[in-house]
# Entry
Amino acid sequence: MSVTTLRRALASVAAAAFVLLAGPHPATAATGSAPPAVKYYAVSSSYQGQPEFLFEIAQRVLGNGNRATDIFDLNKGRQEPDGDTVSDPTVIRPGWFLQLPGDAKGDGVITGVIPTVHPDPSGTLVKYYWVSDSYQGKPEFLAEIAQRFLGDPNRAQDLFALNKDRKEPNGGTLTDPAKIAPGWFVKLPEDAKGDGFIAGPLPHLGPATAGQPSASKGSGSGSGSASAPKASGSAGAPSASAGAPAASSGSKSSSGALVLILAIVLAALIVAGAVWWALRAGLFAKLGTRMRARRSGKPRPAAPRDDAAAWTIDRVLRTLATACSTGGRPLPGVAAVVVGTDTITLRLARPDEQPPRGWSADDQGRTWTAPLRLLQSAAVDDALPTPYPRLVSAGDTDSGRVLLNLAEAHGLISIEGDGRHTRPLIADWIRELSGSPWSRGTTVLRIGFGSGAEDLPGVEDAPTIEAAAATLEENDGGVLVLAHAPSGREPERVGALAGAGDGRWSVLVLGSPKNAGWRLVADAAGTLDTGLLNEPVRLHGKRPLEHA
# Structure
């Protein structure tokens, strides 16, 4: 398409806009489809005495804490009614709504349209509870809620008196103490206690008001991507002005149609303008060049995405660094990390029977273990350096996901065995070192991988060890990856780098070099013998964490 042709198209769109805006508008506005019903969860102030977090919620309602990734992906970017946005998988607040995967089940799961609510404009702090589909496998009712939070089922009458005749998010009203529905919120007396309630401003169904206070850590509920219709517009609700002239309704519908038409026209103008600008700037030609390059076999740079499991592991390891710093003791040398469904286990390079607070030592100090739920809420000093920046994902065992710390090899690390598994494993590790949250800033130097190697941030390439001599000398260190076992005079140079006491470089070799400190052997069945664990690792159980 030429620039001249595009100008004519823009002129036609503009002319059509004037015709639509000047012409008569329909008397009735188009009706949109109702928001879909989904499964969701209202974050409470605590669970088993601890603040809630994604890993714990996933463990409870999905049966696997590592599926916190799924929950985060469903909610990332959603603005909650307190004005904050779901952007960090380690940060959620009481009163937020989290959409859940369709297979979620158990206590706290609500099925319906995620309500649109705001904290009460007055900012008055109260205790309240969101009614879920069931509790311990049975439908919820006021007497059961009173028993749970007040210790007396007879106090259901107190709950009824506090909530009687208040409009609920689905348009219903509490008029019968024997009838409540999932997705309703129930205000609780001040003496309520236990897991599941929220402390914050009571949810407000009306529009947000200017200067409305943000909810504190005990805030009211959040809104989701699918919002419920306002109570005043609920199906079957009587009109607020039944005797109003019909022209008033027609005027509102006409205004709605006008706004819709104007929005469509403006969107068309914006798209057309963007295309015109792209043509002038030659962007389509550049895109065509890139696509042709891709078809020719040259890989495109990969952009690692955030992953809740990766962020969870990163936070847990940072809590360890903080606890060690607070206790005035050094970080332990960690050879391997195993992340289970509810615990994390560190396989130490050197035994240590004095772990910091929150951790327990086993196997004569060879392993440290801690519950993920408690560590998620532990203090983190972000000013401390990343504790283990050379961790890579090896795969899965029956105990959980396994990560190896390349920095603890203190010698060559050989990746041997079936090439169908070893080459993808090396590629995955390079990708993970480039993109995982704990490896940011780690330099990766590839030797002998050729021009077709994947272009990744922080990853440099050289054809030979000799060609990379300057980088190896001047750089602060990182991970050196060789596409094949060194030959000629290379073994001496590579061995000196890997065995240096300063630990600047960890050296990975795809092949079987002599004198390797760690030998990782992959067999044809896709299992990896690490020599560090008591069981083999299944290579294809998980992809690298930043792509999981």
Residues 61 and 301 are 36 Å apart (CA to CA). The longest helix spans residues 246-281. The chain has a mean pLDDT of 76.
